[in-house]
Design brief:
The chain is α+β, with helices and mostly antiparallel strands. It has helices spanning 20-29, 34-48; strands at residues 14-16, 52-56, 62-66, 71-74, 79-81. The chain has one domain.
Length: 83
C-alpha cells in the first residue's frame, strides 16, 4: 500500500506508534490520493485514542487491530476484514 521510505526494513514489521508523527508519515506516503490520506488520518486518530493498534507488514501493507476484536488489512486498493 505504501512505500517504506520513512521506515527501515527492521522497523517495518511491527507495531507502529500511535503518535501524530507516525500518522503524518503514513498520510504523507498516501499524498497522491486524498481519499486514502483522509482514511489514514482517521485510522491514525483511532490508534492515538487507544481504540486500535496498527502494524506495517513486510509487504508494506498495514494491519489494523481494533480493541473490539476486528482486524483489517489496508492493501493498495482495498481494505479487507480479516477477523
Amino acid at each position: 500500500m505504501f512505500s517504506r521510505g520513512g521506515f527501515d526494513a527492521k522497523a517495518s514489521r511491527g507495531k507502529l506508534p500511535g503518535t501524530k508523527e507516525a500518522t503524518d508519515a503514513l498520510v504523507a506516503l498516501a499524498q497522491d490520493n486524498a481519499d486514502k490520506a483522509l482514511v489514514m488520518t482517521y485510522i491514525g486518530q483511532l490508534v492515538a485514542d487507544g481504540y486500535a493498534e496498527w502494524a506495517m507488514l513486510d509487504s508494506g501493507e498495514i494491519e489494523v487491530r481494533f480493541t473490539s476484536g476486528e482486524t483489517y488489512l489496508l492493501a493498495e486498493t482495498t481494505i479487507l476484514r480479516l477477523a
